[in-house]
Write a structure and sequence with these properties.
The chain has 8 helices and 15 strands. It has helices at 13-21, 47-54, 69-78, 94-97, 120-126, 162-182, 216-225, 294-301; strands at 2-7, 25-31, 35-37, 42-44, 59-61, 82-86, 104-108, 131-138, 148-155, 232-236, 239-252, 261-265, 268-272, 277-286, 292-293. It has a 7-stranded mixed sheet, sandwiched between helices. The longest helix is centred in the middle third of the chain and has 21 residues, at 162-182.
Length: 310
Amino acid sequence: MRIVFFGSPTSALPSLKKLREAGHSIELVITQPDKPVGRGKKVSPPPIKKLALDMNIPIYQSEKIRKDTGALEKIEKIQPDLNVVVAYGQIIPSSIIYVPKYNSVNVHFSFLPKYRGASPVQWAILNGETKTGITIFELNEKMDEGDILTQEEFEILPHEDAAELETRLAQKGAELLIDTIAKIDEIAPRKQDHSIATYAPLIKKEDGRIAWTKDALYIERQVRSFTPWPSAYAFLGEKRVKIHNGRKTESKIESSSHGEILGIKKEGIEVCCGEGSVFLIESLQPENRKKMDAYVFSLGAKIKPGDKFG
């Protein structure tokens, strides 16, 4: 097939690679503009742009695809058989969706209609789901509401963080995409049950802030779901501390102050949480420093039981 591919982050890379390996002709890659990233705010291209350049595929970067007549003109000139969308990051207008013979399909990292929206992997982990999935669906003008072509369900592993789960789903999604395209003439699309839809809004930096009044199991999921970004974090004095790894312990306490450090051991730092639960911080990253074991941090920072995370 002649395909126009829409994608931006690392999670879109396996699908583009698999499409090329399967013999499809990628006529154009449309991606987000280069943006400043990291502490130094160095302007960097989206990962999908780097791969497209390596593959010698033409690239078009659009600031606002809904108002971009240039993008539409390019697609109309190509007359592709299919648009493929994987984590593109913008809502695509109907003027573009319906240009190709087979319209447009989207690879979504959830078992729709659960977790429509920009951050399905993070919210599935945070909400304690034990399963998620991949959905290939027909794009329409609404947010992840198109008819389903194919789906596959996967377990969320007990200690899997968002980065690990998304990497696994991206690979599985690429494989399912190739199978779906191969059978696209035979598949009968099915409507989603909108009455049971749930939503996964875009993650914001402040979502990572830990509220120690929550149960330690929730905080464990928060750490997993916000890795690598925006990271779960708390304040020790005036300094922000990112929590990279940790877990709920079996300990229960009857009375203490939420966020209070209960104990320090080689395994990490024990913190009082809601409902008498205890969270063990195993590794962390102090402000403007590298990731380290929590115990090593405790020695250098000279913290002790009774000190408190804000």
